[in-house]
Write a structure and sequence with these properties.
It is built from 7 helices and 11 strands. By secondary structure, the chain is of the alpha/beta class. Strands 1, 2, 3, 4, 5, 6, 7, 8, 9, 10 and 11 form an 11-stranded mixed β-sheet that branches. Strand 10 and strand 11 form a beta hairpin. Helix 1 packs across helix 5.
Length: 225
């Protein structure tokens, strides 16, 4: 049976975060509020947990989940070939609703699905999500919904779709209705938007003028989530 905890309750917050960390270390799944929508998360370094995440969503390996991280510094441990263009976007928009697809560090022992050597990284602008990530380390996190359904804006919506496939639901209250994050593929030349979201092409071009929109053809790896 899954359990639900109110992560906003300061009296039990530390205990809830500790229990969430235990669930993740044991290979379980949890649902967490982010700055965009609710997400379903698993230990990014546990292939079994990532597989369970994809199964809960009704997705296959062709849809590898992004990885949420606690700090900008963590990006340098997970991504390779991080250049000045990538860091310009990180400096301007992290934490925030921007997911960056980068080359993955080749020595990492993980299996997120059919990533083609890439990893999609994001640092959420949400105190609860960041506190959880500080407890667990990098999490593979996709929107908390079954494949094809709208992303959950409340913990109740997530529960109706995912049920007991998730060990712990962390309730942070309703999300603000913001769309899922904008995804930019930094492995493409030139970099391009894979999914439109809260950050517009025009706003991103203020930091990265050569960025192209999702309808412009470009080569490169991609991840969806």
């Amino acid at each position: 049976m899954s359990r639900t905890f109110d992560i906003r309750n300061e009296q039990v917050r530390e205990l809830v975060l500790a229990e969430a960390g235990r669930v993740i270390r044991d290979g379980g799944l949890l649902v967490v509020p982010t700055d965009t929508v609710y997400g379903i998360g698993a230990d990014a370094f546990s292939p079994r947990a990532v597989s369970a995440l994809l199964e809960a969503k009704g997705r296959g390996r062709a849809f590898p989940p992004p990885v949420l991280i606690h700090s900008r510094e963590t990006m340098l441990a997970l991504a390779a070939n991080v250049d000045e263009r990538t860091m310009a976007l990180v400096t301007a928009f992290w934490p925030g609703p921007l997911t960056l697809v980068c080359d993955a560090q080749p020595m990492l022992d993980w299996d997120l699905g059919d990533t083609h050597g890439t990893v999609a990284l994001r640092m959420p602008d949400d105190a609860d999500a960041l506190a959880l990530l500080a407890e667990t380390g990098p999490l593979a996190v996709s929107s908390a919904n079954t494949h094809g359904a709208p992303a959950a804006q409340t913990v109740e919506e997530a529960q109706r779709m995912l049920g007991d496939s998730v060990g712990i639901y962390l309730d942070g209250g309703p999300r603000g209705g913001q769309a899922s994050s904008t995804i930019v593929d930094m492995t493409s030349q030139p970099p391009r938007i894979l999914r439109e979201g809260p950050l517009s092409l025009e706003r991103l071009r203020e930091e990265l003028p050569e960025l192209v929109g999702p309808d412009d053809p470009a080569d490169g790896g991609s991840q969806d989530g």
